[in-house]
Amino acid sequence: MSEDVLNNQTIVRYEDGELIETEDSYAAEFPLTIMVNGEEFATVICSPNRFEELTLGFLASEGAILKLSDLKSIQIDDSKGFAHVELTKALGDHFQYSSKRMIASCCGKSREFYFQNDAAIAKTSMTQITLHPEQIITMMEKLQSASTVFKQTGGLHNAAISDGKTFFEHRQDIGRHNALDKLYGYCIQHHIPVRDKILIFSGRISSEILIKAAKIGVGIILSKSAPTTLAVKLADDLNITAVGFIREGNFNVYSHPERIVAHADED
């Protein structure tokens, strides 16, 4: 599986009144076609790494699989850009409404694709986890420190999943949904429960990102950016704590602030 998420090329840069030739790095983009039971399910435009995680997380977030045991086999052919997935069951009729679906690197082909199964798959959080401010600030600092390729290219979204203490797993992708799917796929692969975890995200919390978090099953999402009005409404409805504008030691809590406590619990 390729880990090459960067391309380097000679470019012309205008700087200080001069046109100069220089080298630049930019994010690689790759189409991965997911085949399920011999049929084309979707083509995901993504960064060319961690294809198995991405495939598992994407299928789980779309309801095609509910657990790892639903998977019979998965074969990645990164030379041709295919993920061949065999399930232990047939896909339901609700996945047959389109013969081909392209999932773009930003927000997807259409709202209909994402909203078709959202109501059935998005989970109302039942987590009992709480965080104190120092944990929130530390997790965002760790995400920023891990985002080395973004600093080179400015062209990747970064996300991490953590328990606020020792567990911290980071992923990056040109698609914001893809970065979250890779994290979800990692947890599925390694049988890591997500109910007691936190998502840390580099971009704004849109309604689609909030729904993705609900599909994964986490109860807290942290961002250095802002949420949208619909995302806050959904977070309130789905019992998810949304924290935004985590910058320079400050942040805003937009929903379910009861999970944010002033001080760490005494053990």
Automatic annotation (TrEMBL):
Function as written in the Swiss-Prot or TrEMBL entry: Required for formate dehydrogenase (FDH) activity. Acts as a sulfur carrier protein that transfers sulfur from IscS to the molybdenum cofactor prior to its insertion into FDH.
Keywords recorded for this protein, A-Z: Cytoplasm, Molybdenum cofactor biosynthesis
Family as reported in the entry's similarity comment: Belongs to the FdhD family.
InterPro entries according to UniProt: Cytidine_deaminase-like, FdhD
Catalytic site: C107 (cysteine persulfide intermediate)
Protein name from the UniProt record: Sulfur carrier protein FdhD
Superkingdom of this protein's organism: Bacteria
Pfam name, any one: FdhD-NarQ
Signal peptide segment: none
Gene3D superfamilies: 3.10.20.10, Cytidine Deaminase, domain 2
Protein location: Cytoplasm
Entries under PANTHER family matching the protein: FORMATE DEHYDROGENASE, SULFUR CARRIER PROTEIN FDHD
